[in-house]
Amino acid sequence: MARWQTATGSVADMEPSALRVKAADAGSVAVGDFSQAGSRQDQSELQQYDYDVETVERVYRKLDWRIIPPFWCLYFLCSAIRSNIGIAQTMNVSDRHDLMSVLHMTPKDTSTALALFYVSYVIFDLPSNLVMSRLNPRVWMARIVFATSLVGTCFAAVQSAWSLKLLRFLLGMVIAGMWPGMAYYLTLFYPPSRTGKRIGMYFTASQVSAAVVGLVSAGFQLMDGLGGLVGFRWMFLVYGLVGIVLSFALLWWLPDRPLAPGQVRHRSKWLSWLPHSPEAVTGDDAIVHYQDLRRVYHPRPWTIRDLVEVLLDWRLWPLTLMYFGVVGVGIGTQLYGSVIIAAIQPTASAITVSLLFAPIWIIDLIAIIIVTPLSDRFHRLRAFFFSAAACIQIAGLLVTTFAVNGWARYSGLLMVGFGLGPTVPICMAWTSETFQRRHGEVGVAAATALVSGLGNLGSITTTYALYAGWPKDAMKGPHQFRKSNLVMVGILGLSIASALVMAVLLRMFGNPPSTKLENDVLNEPEDGAARREAHQPSNLTLRGIMTDLFTVSLISKRATHPSA
Prior knowledge:
Structural class: mainly alpha
CATH architecture of the largest domain: Up-down Bundle
Order of helices and strands: EEHHEHHHHHHHHHHHHHHHHHHH
Largest sheet: 3 strands, antiparallel
């Protein structure tokens, strides 16, 4: 039985079969007539009703179970393939079977190889995401995973510094578009007010991946010499082969973009050989989803002019600077974390360093689970959540840099991990939320790619100019990496300032839809969640909720202790 919330606030119960009643009688659209559901007359009829929260949440839970697990798996493996070069620098170092010793690389060779990945990533990120918006997103995502895994497997055969640099450049080229593409894919199924939590759900795969790479590398180090391969070659080979298998599974596992109920999916001839992917939701659930998020069923073809309008939108650049700082620190920690641990714990073995690397990402994972749902619930306070997390990173970097005791410096890395967790999901969710409302589908595709691509210039800065790329700063001793850490503190300050500027300017100028988009959606709230929020009591804010909780606590206390 479904429950409908009318515009006047009354609630009516209906059997699912009643949804097939004529619109004039039930306030809905006949199931067999949904091919016409995009008309303005039907839009106005649908606007009169809204499903109750329980019904809508049930549908989105089904979507979560269908979309988040494959996203988690693909992001886990691609993150491992992208970052395992960091742990390879310390694997079996006592036997001189680490990456730098085997390939006879200098620290500058290492920093150049790491940076080349992000050079190609920045170049190809936007084109990849725009192609994805034109083609089948499911197939394009599987293509990214297959190509990434294939190149990752080739790392097992690398023999020299130049071949490592070439493969790192190719890896950045083929993986480009994955991270912003995942954010774009979510907007096809979820309203902006729900994306932050979902991004956080699969972003945890990166943290688990970093922890697992550290832990499992201990096992690969024990395989050193098996079959004539050193430990890090076994690591590259296994992760790459598993990723190739996953890429084929994604063709069935991920759903195609949703259709309006009643529409028939027409498949291209060149895709007819691919396995059929079941629809994300069907039947009455598809009707509920359609009414709660009608925009996803009406993608508007975009032109170069639309793309230029996105590029000229001032909202893009504060978000890019926010991403620049936090992703730079994140990549620096991911690629050089084990090296920093080895520097502050000089007596630790290579296996101990690998084991100490994992807790950083477990703490990171905990922060994501705690903070990202709150940033979705209070999405008007995204700047606050982002800035607070960045401040924790700054504090952690300062502790790691200036503390005297080695374990105290290690605790600073744990603080950095906690602060890192929520920042990237919050930034991508804020980007999707802002540009979906303002520019529609092309806005999400272009803005997420540009924020991710240009923001990864911070990764180039970290990998090429800082840490191993700064020879004097990389010299062993009590002050190793001190200057690099302080530069990252300054970059994080830039990210915090950009978040505050974004919040202030949005408050001053707002975020109205573009004229063309406004005509398409009749200037309505972009989704059911936004409509429900518009009718919430005025005290449903962070301050109001805290006041209500205090009141409930006081009443409960008095009921328990009447004399109080």
